[in-house]
Amino acid sequence: MSEEKLSFQAEVSRLLDIVAHSLYSEKEVFLRELISNASDACDKLRYASLTQPELTAGDANFRITLTPDTAARTLTIADNGIGMNRDDLVENLGTIARSGTANFMAALSQKAEAKKDGEKDVSLIGQFGVGFYSAFMVAGEVEVYSRKAGESQGWRWTSDGKGSFTVGESDDAPARGSRIVLHLRDGEDDYLQTYRLQSIVKKYSDHISIPVLVGDDEKPANAASALWTRPKSEITAEQYKEFYHHVGHAFDDPWLTLHWRAEGVLEYTNLLFIPEAKPFDLFEPERKHRVKLYVRRVFITEGPEGLIPAYLRFLRGVVDSEDLPLNVSREMLQHNPMLAKMRTGIAKRVLGDLARKADDADSKADYARFWENFGAVLKEGLYEEREQRDTLLKLLRAYSTHGGTHGDELVSLEDYVGRMKPGQDAIYYITGEDKAALARSPHLEGFRAKGVEVLFLTDAVDEFWLQSVTQYKDHAFKSVTRGGADLANVTAEDKNDETPKAPEDSVADLVALAKLTLGDAVKDVRTSERLRESAVCLVADEGDMDIHLERMLKAHRRLDETSKRILEVNPTHPLIRRLADLAKANGAGGAQGEALADAAWLLLDQARILEGEPLPDPVAFGRRLATFVEKGLA
């Protein structure tokens, strides 16, 4: 078979362009990425050989070798792992076959453009799991010779990183595994020095459980023992950080490191990390975690279903079981009762450690940073896992009106309950997509006037967990956009902030006229206790779906018809009082009655606009508005 010349996927070409023209301050990390990939290849073959021992026949000792050639100016990284065939080479090295690629590239480009003096940061590469391409930071050409374990045909992949690559059969491929040959750029001779390579391996890859051998004499450069099996007292913060970089394919630092051994009926060791930065795949529909499962130091699989709850999928690291059988298949894992018990134990421990961080007054800002990254994911557990619900509610944070007009301080439910006003029984909230827009909602006016705190819930998941979790410490969750948000029993601290009263019959004629005019366009028209500055607002009836949830479901075509809303009018607003006087004096007849009917429709459209809803008849709205302005100017 002759060589084929193929083009990179568009995103890969853009990525390589950024890499090739970058001046990255720590180019040496390319070696970490390639060693990490080689280690993964060995782990995969070790697992496959449990059921197919012939795959490692005659060569059962896994290793990674680094061989510099000063004459040819090449650095070779070789492993005797699982290897790749033609399709693997094209898929793994020619495409980024993962959803979210466009977002990744946009973030990478923005970071690059933000750098001064032409310096571009490619630190996002490893975080997206495409660390192979970092080789082009130091190499003008990269060759990959590979033969997949159990197959006879070897293959060669080569590229200069400028938009295309070639792939074809090769007799020069290793007996098994991969050999990557980097043709170094001018000025990169530093990576041809054995002592330099040894220092990089010691710095970044000492935790790799596969021996890394350097130079012609193949001198070991790493400890070659699984980091998680070592005593915590013997592991430095730097070693933990580098292991996180390896296992998470990440360039950021871990926000929290969790290393413990579970003993008892089940024994398993856990070395888990919470990232400092949000992974790109966090909101992929599959909601898969990336924690690796080992059995007695033998890699089994990454992301086994049932080991880590979906709401903790931001975790990275390893879980090593002493009790699972070595020959366990990925299919058997899905229904394994031991895995279910491990899942419960892991979730309880992780949430417990998060609770300690959340309760620590000195870690308030630190925990807020975690919540901004992963709070939306953590809240999925509120409706998925009843067993951990109480702990998750304690971890929950939200912005609220307590932080001022803009609500710039995260508060806990415990903080909220401690600030509840006399006569207040419920925990009030408002949902939407934008905190700043919610802060301007007319629904908040009465609550602010009485000093009642309202939570801003802006994640899509909020609408769903609130259907399952109805209260916290005997206090019901209540939306301020629902009709039952009663403020009558709440005592304002300042008597001047008490709800202004209007005579009971002062707007009765206007309300009756509006009901008659609007008919089936609304569920009801009534006076409001919550409004202060605004003339009108729309609210959902007590038993109806919340306004934001209904809008969200309709946008995703999960709902065909929307509920009719209640139009509330502010009896103390000058406009409403003037219209009420006209309605009382003239009734619904004559020209004045027609004007009042138009006013009722304008009030409804105004309430719709305030809710961010589209007007069903913009032409009629424009005509009515023009008529009113014309009469007002006459």
Automatic annotation (TrEMBL):
Renumbered residue ranges of the record's region C? 552-634
Could you say which residues bind ATP here?
A: E33, N37, D79, M84, N92, S99, G100, Q127, F128, G129, V130, G131, F132, R330
Example GO molecular function term?
A: unfolded protein binding
What Gene3D superfamilies does the entry give?
3.30.230.80, 3.40.50.11260, Heat shock protein 90, C-terminal domain, Histidine kinase-like ATPase, C-terminal domain
Q: Which UniProt keywords apply?
A: ATP-binding, Chaperone, Cytoplasm, Nucleotide-binding, Stress response
UniProt-listed Pfam families: HATPase_c_3, HSP90
Q: Where is this region: A?
A: 1-330
Where found, per UniProt? Answer: Cytoplasm
Q: Which CDD domains match?
A: HATPase_Hsp90-like (cd16927)
GO cellular component entries: cytoplasm
Q: Where is the Histidine kinase/HSP90-like ATPase domain?
A: 26-188
**Taxonomically, which superkingdom?**
Bacteria
Subunit structure and binding partners = Homodimer.
Biological role stated in the UniProt entry: Molecular chaperone. Has ATPase activity.
The entry's family comment says: Belongs to the heat shock protein 90 family.
Which protein are we looking at?
A: Chaperone protein HtpG
